[in-house]
Amino acid sequence: QVHLVESGGGLVQAGGSLRLSCAVSGRTFSRYVMGWFRQAPGKEREFVASIRWSEGSTSYADSVKGRFTISRENAKNTVYLQMNSLKPEDTAVYYCAARSSVIYDNWGQGTQVTVSS
């Protein structure tokens, strides 16, 4: 089990940038895959990006490729989501998640990102 705490959300104009952070604690999370998901009002939660902690391999949703970058910092036990060229449709609550198998079974509380046009 790992504990996840997100931060860094806020209000930004279209075209701007934000960096989300996810502080990770718990046992042996180095074996985990870390993910970022988002949920907009009235929509289902969707995958944004993931990173395999041990080797750093990444995956992105098509909607954010080239604009968002996921990374991790071992010394700080933190996962980041750098979001550039933000669009109003990126507005959502963003969640950090972790999995050691197939299913993401550890979730943070979420952080709101609002992009104004």
Description:
By secondary structure, the chain is an all-beta fold. The chain is 0% helix and 55% strand. It is built from no helices and eleven strands. The chain has strands at 2-7, 10-13, 18-26, 33-39, 46-52, 58-60, 68-73, 78-83, 92-99, 106-107, 111-116. Strands 2, 4, 5, 6, 9, 10 and 11 form a seven-stranded mixed sheet that branches. A four-stranded antiparallel sheet has the order 1-3-8-7, with no helix packed on it. Strand 5 and strand 6 form a beta hairpin. The radius of gyration is 13 Å and the shape is globular. 33% of the residues are buried.
Structure characteristics:
four-stranded antiparallel β-sheet; globular; 117 residues; mainly beta
Short synopsis of the structure:
With 117 residues, this protein is mostly beta strands.
What is the topology?
Elements lengths: L1 E6 L2 E4 L4 E9 L6 E7 L6 E7 L5 E3 L7 E6 L4 E6 L8 E8 L6 E2 L3 E6 L1
Parallel strand pairs: 2-11
Antiparallel strand pairs: 1-3, 3-8, 4-5, 4-9, 5-6, 7-8, 9-10, 9-11
Gross morphology: globular
pLDDT < 50 stretches:
none
In what range is the share of β-strand residues? over 45%
Average residue-wise pLDDT: 95
Helix content, binned percent: under 10%
Question: How is the biggest beta sheet arranged?
Answer: 7 strands, mixed
Order of helices and strands: EEEEEEEEEEE
Q: What gap, in angstroms, lies between the N and C termini?
A: 39 Å
The total of beta strands comes to 11
